[in-house]
Amino acid sequence: xxxxxxxxxxxxxxxxxxxxxxxxxxxxxxxxxxxxxxxxxxxxxxxxxxxxxxxxxxxxxxxxxxxxxxxxxxxxxxxxxxxxxxxxxxxxxxxxxxxxxxxxxxxxxxxxxxxxxxxxxxxxxxxxxxxxxxxxxxxxxxxxxxxxxxxxxxxxxxxxxxxxxxxxxxxxxxxxxxxxxxxxxxxxxxxxxxxxxxxxxxxxxxxxxxxxxxxxxxxxxxxxxxxxxxxxxxxxxxxxxxxxxxxxxxxxxxxxxxxxxxxxxxxxxxxxxxxxxxxxxxxxxxxxxxxxxxxxxxxxxxxxxxxxxxxxxxxxxxxxxxxxxxxxxxxxxxxxxxxxxxxxxxxxxxxxxxxxxxxxxxxxxxxxxxxxxxxxxxxxxxxxxxxxxxxxxxxxxxxxxxxxxxxxxxxxxxxxxxxxxxxxxxxxxxxxxxxxxxxxxxxxxxxxxxxxxxxxxxxxxxxxxxxxxxxxxxxxxxxxxxxxxxxxxxxxxxxxxxxxxxxxxxxxxxxxxxxxxxxxxxxxxxxxxxxxxxxxxxxxxxxxxxxxxxxxxxxxxxxxxxxxxxxxxxxxxxxxxxxxxxxxxxxxxxxxxxxxxxxxxxxxxxxxxxxxxxxxxxxxxxxxxxxxxxxxxxxxxxxxxxxxxxxxxxxxxxxxxxxxxxxxxxxxxxxxxxxxxxxxxxxxxxxxxxxxxxxxxxxxxxxxxxxxxxxxxxxxxxxxxxxxxxxxxxxxxxxxxxxxxxxxxxxxxxxxxxxxxxxxxxxxxxxxxxxxxxxxxxxxxxxxxxxxxxxxxxxxxxxxxxxxxxxxxxxxxxxxxxxxxxxxxxxxxxxxxxxxxxxxxxxxxxxxxxxxxxxxxxxxxxxxxxxxxxxxxxxxxxxxx
Length: 881
Prior knowledge:
The protein is an alpha+beta fold. It contains 19 helices and 31 strands.
């Protein structure tokens, strides 16, 4: 509360009482124990200037304002008269007065206040005749003040003006600081209010049972309207803040002194305005579409709805073509705001603002997303038809999904023993239920399985692989073996053809993936728990647990008990179904920071061929190729190329114990023609159960440019039907010598222990489980290509357990342009590649051998090796891209 005159001891008169008589007419104030008195600031009235005489009559008349005491009594100050000093007369206040000057009603009774004594008439300016308290009259005064006052009194008028001007200049910054402090507090209040509204908007969706990133919680209409209120309020605060920072003159002046701080604050205000405008746009559409979208996200796999896993009822669409149009219209409105935010974010200096490290990191991480967001939104605008097609906005889509087992290697990366339909209608995705292909295409009733589906099985019996894949040895050709080609579009079309023939249903695309993709997903999601089996699946134990439940009798029996199924063929894939369902549900509920990581893993998986996708819509395929890859076999004649494809036809899971290494020494002649000397090593160390025949039988196909000319080959089975005893080399059977560790005596096949025999498979001469000799080897047996635009060298390679075989090939490729080689690894095979180029061209005469050599493990991605001339040190260099 305001203090009455005299209560503040800091502003006492600088003139000692003993000196008062020397300054006639000077203001002398009294200090009383009853009422303290202090000088009150006053403004001089306009009077003629007189020399300093010490006479009160020659000084400007002083007028003091009314002052309110803390005691609840209003004081009225009388003007100073010529006869003496004005006094303070008490005047009762109707109400007590607070510090702010606002009355709060009658207060407690206050003690009476003694009026200040007045100067006696006729004693004008004579301070010695005034009634002064002894304590005040006798108080000592610092001599420094007296000297300063005397010096000031003796100054000329001009000097006084100069001093006053200097004093004003010194005090002016303080005045500005006060004013700007008030302004800064107002700006801070606006920013703080906006932040609180944004936090309130965020808190609407936090907590409760819908945590962990469930998208359904963001489409509750009631909550969306609450968020809309908070976003609108935050937007209003930010608009006011932006305008103040942009238009206030004092802020502009401050910007000249601290440009980085003011510039950053202005940019963040603009970013906040654009961000809340984006929120307003999105919220309007979200509220409109929430009733249907909440169903879609609340029930992504359709569990709990009328469309159960066993239901054949058509899916109800959640999005229509009109909804898609609205979404893209919103994106079109949002893009300019994101662009403006991106521009404002450039050159920001967050370290100039009083932000905590946590706040700075959060804001910084969000700002880093703006460039990618702007690019992504602009790209999305060009994908409207493709996205609409994938969502099934115009009509339902059905895609075939097939997991591949890379332990049983096939051309696309693994054996496809399971399949399931994934249907999407207007963004509503059906549950994915995987089925065992053996229940439809294999008759294994002798193993205790139920008879296969008669309708489908009748269409498979006696079917053969179509031309030009006449090398395929397995009868009853069906969808399970249709992934014959390493060119995935070719395999996908064959799979869709067989599915349409066998199951009488047209497909819109095929999606296949290896266990490596699931491992990548588990790397993002973390381990998943399969409650029914009390199993925790990690990226490290995934394949081992899948094989246990698919192939081990103990695991299959456990599935029968848990799933209450008596057919082992039906039971053996049910654990895989549980893993798939749990994993998809976990991915659906990932928090947003992990969703981006998962999307990146998916795009990378298309390049490593762990995820292969083909659709009947060419525009969608082009989109996948643009941002990821479609595993297509290269057919260009503008460069050299090499693709080696293996197919495990051992009826076993032995591929997981086989490593592949490829050494290719390329010699370039003066014209640029390339002679390849390739050694492919298959090292088979049987470290565990292969769940089938122990001997590894691999059909190897080498794809090269169509003009390639075979020079030599060695290490292949000598002739088709090697399993006949008359075509053996050593080992089991009458008339055959015992095999040594170096089986053929030339280092081609070397084993840790001497092989005794090999076992045959169901498609060979004598049926499965028979003991056979190690076959004789020689040149490859097949040069009829099964891929248009490619030459092919193919044949069988046989490897007993714990042995390593070297297969050699040599061929010539006519010259093309500047030499480059496209190497295309097979899916699921990560070969060790050792590549050397020796060139007879003059430009490469000074090349170092190390400059023309590459050695490394291929990760599944296609790589181009280019011979670059004109290096800084002379010669050539081999560059990988």
